[in-house]
Amino acid sequence: MQIEHLRQLGADFAALCTTLTALDAGPGAELLQQLGPKILSIHELTGRTLVHLSALDGSQYTAVPGSRSSLETLGEVVASACFAAWQLARAVADNPLEASAFAGGPPLDDAVVRQARHAEAAPLLAESLVTAAHHLKLCATCCHYTASGITRDLERTASTSAGRPVPHRLSAAQYQALRSLAQGGATMQTRGRGSTTVCTPDLTVITTATFQSLDKRGLLHLDTSVPLYRGRSITVTPEGHRALAHHSAGKGAAITPSAAAATKGPRR
């Protein structure tokens, strides 16, 4: 949905740029009447851009590789739009209007004075309008670029996820063991009478059967370069961390607010 909104936003910026380019930059009251609605339109488009930027910033899209570039590009749209509005505001200030001067000044109907003021303001107004149109065009381009970037990022992520194996499911004992190993590692070594034990910093008991099941799935790495009597280090592999994350996410999704409230029982 955001993608289509961004494309529409880009089209609206482009349309506003076209109408601004078609304006007659001649100084006077007519130009003031033309600039006012354009400034308001830019502010409205800026507000819409901020809404989309905030929505993307608070969404799961931020976890997708490449999302930072899209958010930064949309941030540039806000900056360019504000600069375009400022350029039109500058044109409003530079636009000479007919009004009474201080006492003793030149008369209002002095054609020479009026012509000189208009001649001085004309290039300033033209420059402001051209610059504003340039930044509006840049806003349109950035909106379309952001929409295309989001589409590309999501498609690439979906393609990568499709080729990735489903994480291993863990039993309660396997999860506790793997979580303990992920927090501080462990050491496997032989004790008296040739028995083998797994020693963890938090003293979690890990049976040989649990270790072997995790090791067989490729969730652990055992340093076999060291003799058992000296202690072999055990670390969790990237696949093991992924299995932990998958297991934790599954537990969180299984506990709904209504279920959690039911376990507390009625209040007394």
The quaternary organization reads as: single chain
> What Rg, in angstroms, do the CA atoms define?
33 Å
Number of E-state strands: 4
The helix content, as a percent range, equals 55-70%
Principal-axes geometry comes out as rod-shaped
CATH architecture of the largest domain: Up-down Bundle
Unreliable residue stretches? 252-268
N-to-C order of helices and strands: HHHHHEEHEEHH
Number of domains: 2
Question: Which strand order spans the largest sheet, edge to edge or round the barrel?
Answer: 2-1-4-3
Distinct helical segment count: 8
Largest sheet: 4 strands, antiparallel
Strand content: 5-15%
End-to-end gap: 47 Å
Write the layout of secondary structure elements.
Layout (H helix, E strand, L loop, with lengths): L1 H20 L7 H29 L9 H28 L16 H52 L9 H13 L1 E5 L5 E4 L8 H9 L3 E3 L9 E5 L1 H17 L2 H8 L4
Antiparallel strand pairs: 1-2, 1-4, 3-4
Q: Care to describe what's here?
A:
The chain has about 270 residues and is an alpha+beta fold. The chain folds into two domains: about 1-100 and about 110-160, Four Helix Bundle (Hemerythrin (Met), subunit A), CATH 1.20.120; about 170-255, Orthogonal Bundle (Arc Repressor Mutant, subunit A), CATH 1.10.10. It contains eight helices and four strands; from the N terminus they run αααααββαββαα. The chain has helices at about 1-20, 30-55, 65-95, 110-160, 170-185, 210-215, 240-255, 255-265, and strands at about 185-190, 195-200, 220, 230-235. The protein has a four-stranded antiparallel beta sheet with strand order 2-1-4-3. A hairpin with a 5-residue loop joins β1 (about 185-190) and β2. α1 packs antiparallel against α4. The two termini are about 45 Å apart.
